[in-house]
Protein backbone atom coordinates (compact mmCIF):
# COMPACT_ATOMS: atom_id res chain seq x y z
CA UNK A 1 0.00 0.00 0.00
CA UNK A 2 1.14 3.54 -0.83
CA UNK A 3 -0.46 6.74 0.50
CA UNK A 4 0.36 10.43 0.17
CA UNK A 5 -0.34 13.56 2.19
CA UNK A 6 -0.92 16.60 -0.02
CA UNK A 7 -1.02 20.02 1.60
CA UNK A 8 -0.03 21.70 4.82
CA UNK A 9 3.12 21.43 6.89
CA UNK A 10 4.12 23.58 9.84
CA UNK A 11 6.32 23.60 12.86
CA UNK A 12 4.44 23.72 16.15
CA UNK A 13 6.34 26.22 18.28
CA UNK A 14 5.89 25.53 21.99
CA UNK A 15 6.44 29.04 23.29
CA UNK A 16 6.74 28.12 26.96
CA UNK A 17 9.71 25.80 26.38
CA UNK A 18 11.14 27.25 23.12
CA UNK A 19 10.97 23.92 21.27
CA UNK A 20 9.46 23.44 17.82
CA UNK A 21 8.19 20.18 16.35
CA UNK A 22 7.27 19.26 12.76
CA UNK A 23 3.53 19.00 12.15
CA UNK A 24 0.54 19.85 9.97
CA UNK A 25 -2.45 17.68 9.08
CA UNK A 26 -1.23 16.45 5.68
CA UNK A 27 2.35 15.98 6.83
CA UNK A 28 1.31 14.18 10.03
CA UNK A 29 -0.73 11.75 7.96
CA UNK A 30 2.34 10.82 5.92
CA UNK A 31 4.52 10.39 9.00
CA UNK A 32 1.97 8.30 10.88
CA UNK A 33 1.41 6.10 7.83
CA UNK A 34 5.16 5.49 7.68
CA UNK A 35 5.21 4.66 11.40
CA UNK A 36 2.46 2.10 10.73
CA UNK A 37 4.57 0.37 8.11
CA UNK A 38 3.04 1.81 4.95
CA UNK A 39 5.00 3.42 2.12
CA UNK A 40 4.25 7.14 2.37
CA UNK A 41 4.99 10.36 0.53
CA UNK A 42 4.32 14.03 1.12
CA UNK A 43 3.68 16.85 -1.35
CA UNK A 44 3.66 20.38 0.03
CA UNK A 45 5.33 23.80 0.13
CA UNK A 46 8.39 24.59 2.23
CA UNK A 47 10.04 27.89 3.06
CA UNK A 48 13.81 28.26 3.32
CA UNK A 49 14.23 29.04 7.02
CA UNK A 50 15.39 26.93 9.97
CA UNK A 51 11.90 25.50 10.47
CA UNK A 52 11.62 24.35 6.86
CA UNK A 53 15.08 22.82 6.87
CA UNK A 54 14.29 20.91 10.05
CA UNK A 55 11.09 19.47 8.56
CA UNK A 56 12.89 18.47 5.36
CA UNK A 57 15.70 16.77 7.29
CA UNK A 58 13.15 14.97 9.47
CA UNK A 59 11.20 13.64 6.49
CA UNK A 60 14.41 12.51 4.83
CA UNK A 61 15.44 10.72 8.02
CA UNK A 62 12.05 9.00 8.09
CA UNK A 63 12.46 8.00 4.42
CA UNK A 64 9.27 9.73 3.32
CA UNK A 65 9.30 10.68 -0.36
CA UNK A 66 9.24 14.50 -0.76
CA UNK A 67 10.47 14.54 -4.38
CA UNK A 68 7.46 16.54 -5.61
CA UNK A 69 7.50 19.21 -2.89
CA UNK A 70 8.07 22.89 -3.65
CA UNK A 71 10.46 25.19 -1.80
CA UNK A 72 10.31 28.99 -1.91
CA UNK A 73 12.17 31.82 -0.25
CA UNK A 74 10.38 32.88 2.92
CA UNK A 75 9.07 31.76 6.27
CA UNK A 76 7.74 28.25 6.63
CA UNK A 77 4.32 27.79 8.15
CA UNK A 78 4.22 27.69 11.95
CA UNK A 79 1.68 27.49 14.75
CA UNK A 80 2.35 28.91 18.21
CA UNK A 81 1.41 26.70 21.16
CA UNK A 82 1.31 27.80 24.79
CA UNK A 83 0.34 26.38 28.16
CA UNK A 84 -2.92 27.83 29.53
CA UNK A 85 -4.25 26.48 32.83
CA UNK A 86 -2.30 23.28 32.24
CA UNK A 87 -3.63 22.72 28.72
CA UNK A 88 -1.69 23.25 25.49
CA UNK A 89 -3.59 25.66 23.25
CA UNK A 90 -2.88 27.25 19.87
CA UNK A 91 -2.38 30.99 20.30
CA UNK A 92 -1.44 32.09 16.79
CA UNK A 93 0.79 31.48 13.80
CA UNK A 94 1.58 32.81 10.34
CA UNK A 95 -1.31 31.27 8.39
CA UNK A 96 0.83 28.83 6.47
CA UNK A 97 3.79 31.09 5.67
CA UNK A 98 5.02 30.70 2.08
CA UNK A 99 2.12 28.37 1.32
CA UNK A 100 -0.07 31.49 1.21
CA UNK A 101 1.91 33.24 -1.50
CA UNK A 102 2.81 30.00 -3.29
CA UNK A 103 -0.23 27.69 -3.01
CA UNK A 104 -0.12 24.19 -4.42
CA UNK A 105 -1.34 24.06 -8.02
CA UNK A 106 -1.28 20.45 -9.12
CA UNK A 107 0.37 19.89 -12.51
CA UNK A 108 -0.19 16.93 -14.79
CA UNK A 109 3.18 15.60 -13.64
CA UNK A 110 1.99 15.81 -10.03
CA UNK A 111 -1.24 14.03 -10.89
CA UNK A 112 0.54 11.23 -12.75
CA UNK A 113 2.66 10.75 -9.62
CA UNK A 114 -0.28 10.95 -7.20
CA UNK A 115 -2.16 8.39 -9.27
CA UNK A 116 0.38 5.75 -8.20
CA UNK A 117 -0.97 5.91 -4.63
CA UNK A 118 -4.09 4.36 -3.16
CA UNK A 119 -5.18 7.40 -1.19
CA UNK A 120 -4.36 11.12 -1.05
CA UNK A 121 -5.09 13.02 2.17
CA UNK A 122 -5.42 16.79 2.46
CA UNK A 123 -6.90 19.34 4.87
CA UNK A 124 -8.72 22.62 5.31
CA UNK A 125 -5.39 24.31 6.20
CA UNK A 126 -3.81 23.35 2.88
CA UNK A 127 -5.54 25.99 0.74
CA UNK A 128 -6.38 23.30 -1.82
CA UNK A 129 -10.16 23.34 -2.02
CA UNK A 130 -9.98 24.39 -5.67
CA UNK A 131 -7.55 21.56 -6.51
CA UNK A 132 -9.46 18.67 -4.92
CA UNK A 133 -11.38 17.87 -8.08
CA UNK A 134 -8.04 17.11 -9.76
CA UNK A 135 -7.22 14.58 -7.05
CA UNK A 136 -10.66 13.00 -7.38
CA UNK A 137 -10.29 12.77 -11.16
CA UNK A 138 -7.15 10.62 -10.81
CA UNK A 139 -9.44 7.81 -9.66
CA UNK A 140 -7.74 7.22 -6.29
CA UNK A 141 -9.47 7.67 -2.94
CA UNK A 142 -9.34 11.19 -1.48
CA UNK A 143 -9.68 12.02 2.22
CA UNK A 144 -9.96 15.47 3.75
CA UNK A 145 -9.66 16.86 7.27
CA UNK A 146 -12.00 19.81 7.91
CA UNK A 147 -10.83 20.17 11.54
CA UNK A 148 -13.31 22.61 13.16
CA UNK A 149 -13.21 25.07 10.26
CA UNK A 150 -16.30 24.03 8.36
CA UNK A 151 -19.66 25.54 7.52
CA UNK A 152 -22.36 24.66 5.01
CA UNK A 153 -20.64 26.59 2.23
CA UNK A 154 -17.30 24.79 2.75
CA UNK A 155 -18.99 21.40 2.97
CA UNK A 156 -20.93 22.06 -0.24
CA UNK A 157 -17.70 22.97 -2.04
CA UNK A 158 -15.50 20.14 -0.78
CA UNK A 159 -17.60 17.03 -0.08
CA UNK A 160 -18.42 16.21 -3.73
CA UNK A 161 -14.67 15.78 -4.36
CA UNK A 162 -13.83 13.80 -1.20
CA UNK A 163 -14.47 10.13 -0.44
CA UNK A 164 -13.72 10.20 3.29
CA UNK A 165 -14.38 13.36 5.32
CA UNK A 166 -12.94 13.92 8.79
CA UNK A 167 -14.44 16.57 11.08
CA UNK A 168 -13.62 17.68 14.63
CA UNK A 169 -16.91 17.56 16.53
CA UNK A 170 -15.92 17.84 20.18
CA UNK A 171 -18.06 20.96 20.55
CA UNK A 172 -21.24 19.25 19.29
CA UNK A 173 -23.86 17.06 20.95
CA UNK A 174 -24.39 13.49 19.71
CA UNK A 175 -27.55 14.29 17.73
CA UNK A 176 -25.81 17.27 16.11
CA UNK A 177 -22.87 15.07 15.10
CA UNK A 178 -25.19 12.53 13.51
CA UNK A 179 -26.94 15.28 11.56
CA UNK A 180 -23.59 16.68 10.41
CA UNK A 181 -22.19 13.33 9.28
CA UNK A 182 -25.43 12.56 7.47
CA UNK A 183 -25.22 15.90 5.66
CA UNK A 184 -21.59 15.27 4.64
CA UNK A 185 -22.49 11.92 3.09
CA UNK A 186 -25.52 13.41 1.33
CA UNK A 187 -23.18 15.95 -0.30
CA UNK A 188 -20.96 13.29 -1.86
CA UNK A 189 -18.62 11.69 0.66
CA UNK A 190 -19.02 7.94 1.02
CA UNK A 191 -17.87 8.06 4.65
CA UNK A 192 -17.86 10.76 7.33
CA UNK A 193 -15.88 10.58 10.58
CA UNK A 194 -16.42 12.83 13.57
CA UNK A 195 -13.78 12.97 16.28
CA UNK A 196 -15.19 13.93 19.67
CA UNK A 197 -12.15 14.43 21.90
CA UNK A 198 -12.48 12.55 25.18
CA UNK A 199 -15.79 11.04 23.98
CA UNK A 200 -14.07 9.15 21.17
CA UNK A 201 -15.21 9.06 17.55
CA UNK A 202 -18.22 8.38 15.36
CA UNK A 203 -18.39 7.07 11.78
CA UNK A 204 -21.27 7.19 9.31
CA UNK A 205 -20.94 5.16 6.12
CA UNK A 206 -24.15 6.37 4.52
CA UNK A 207 -26.15 3.57 6.14
CA UNK A 208 -25.10 2.99 9.75
CA UNK A 209 -23.46 4.88 12.61
CA UNK A 210 -20.55 3.41 14.55
CA UNK A 211 -19.03 4.75 17.78
CA UNK A 212 -15.65 4.20 19.41
CA UNK A 213 -14.54 5.08 22.92
CA UNK A 214 -10.95 6.33 23.31
CA UNK A 215 -8.17 4.27 24.84
CA UNK A 216 -7.46 6.18 28.03
CA UNK A 217 -3.87 7.06 28.88
CA UNK A 218 -2.27 9.81 30.92
CA UNK A 219 -1.28 12.06 28.00
CA UNK A 220 2.07 13.76 27.61
CA UNK A 221 0.77 15.79 24.68
CA UNK A 222 -2.53 15.37 22.78
CA UNK A 223 -1.27 17.18 19.68
CA UNK A 224 -1.69 14.92 16.66
CA UNK A 225 -4.22 12.61 18.32
CA UNK A 226 -6.86 13.25 15.67
CA UNK A 227 -4.42 12.85 12.78
CA UNK A 228 -3.02 9.61 14.18
CA UNK A 229 -6.49 8.25 14.86
CA UNK A 230 -7.56 8.90 11.29
CA UNK A 231 -4.36 7.50 9.77
CA UNK A 232 -4.59 4.20 11.64
CA UNK A 233 -8.33 4.00 10.96
CA UNK A 234 -8.10 4.52 7.21
CA UNK A 235 -5.08 2.25 6.72
CA UNK A 236 -6.83 -0.57 8.56
CA UNK A 237 -9.96 0.07 6.53
CA UNK A 238 -8.15 0.03 3.18
CA UNK A 239 -6.31 -3.18 4.08
CA UNK A 240 -9.60 -4.83 5.03
CA UNK A 241 -11.28 -3.75 1.80
CA UNK A 242 -8.58 -5.57 -0.16
CA UNK A 243 -9.49 -8.88 1.46
CA UNK A 244 -13.23 -8.16 1.47
CA UNK A 245 -13.81 -8.07 5.22
CA UNK A 246 -17.48 -7.51 6.16
CA UNK A 247 -18.09 -3.74 6.08
CA UNK A 248 -19.58 -3.35 9.57
CA UNK A 249 -16.88 -5.52 11.13
CA UNK A 250 -14.20 -3.68 9.17
CA UNK A 251 -15.31 -0.26 10.41
CA UNK A 252 -15.37 -1.53 14.00
CA UNK A 253 -11.86 -2.98 13.82
CA UNK A 254 -10.61 0.15 12.03
CA UNK A 255 -12.03 2.34 14.80
CA UNK A 256 -10.28 0.18 17.37
CA UNK A 257 -6.98 0.51 15.46
CA UNK A 258 -7.43 4.28 15.35
CA UNK A 259 -8.12 4.55 19.08
CA UNK A 260 -5.11 2.41 19.94
CA UNK A 261 -2.70 4.41 17.80
CA UNK A 262 -4.07 7.78 18.95
CA UNK A 263 -3.42 6.79 22.55
CA UNK A 264 0.21 5.98 21.69
CA UNK A 265 0.58 9.37 20.00
CA UNK A 266 -0.55 11.10 23.20
CA UNK A 267 2.57 9.76 24.94
CA UNK A 268 4.91 11.71 22.60
CA UNK A 269 5.87 15.41 22.70
CA UNK A 270 4.63 17.30 19.65
CA UNK A 271 2.80 15.45 16.90
CA UNK A 272 5.55 12.83 16.55
CA UNK A 273 8.62 14.17 18.33
CA UNK A 274 11.75 15.51 16.56
CA UNK A 275 11.78 18.76 18.52
CA UNK A 276 14.59 21.33 18.28
CA UNK A 277 15.17 24.66 20.01
CA UNK A 278 14.14 27.91 18.38
UniProtKB/TrEMBL annotation:
One of its GO terms (molecular function) is kinase activity. It comes from the Bacteria. InterPro entries: PfkB_Carbo_kinase, PfkB_dom, Ribokinase-like. Keywords: Kinase, Transferase. It holds the Pfam family PfkB. Residues 20-270 form the Carbohydrate kinase PfkB domain. Belongs to the carbohydrate kinase PfkB family. This is PfkB family carbohydrate kinase.
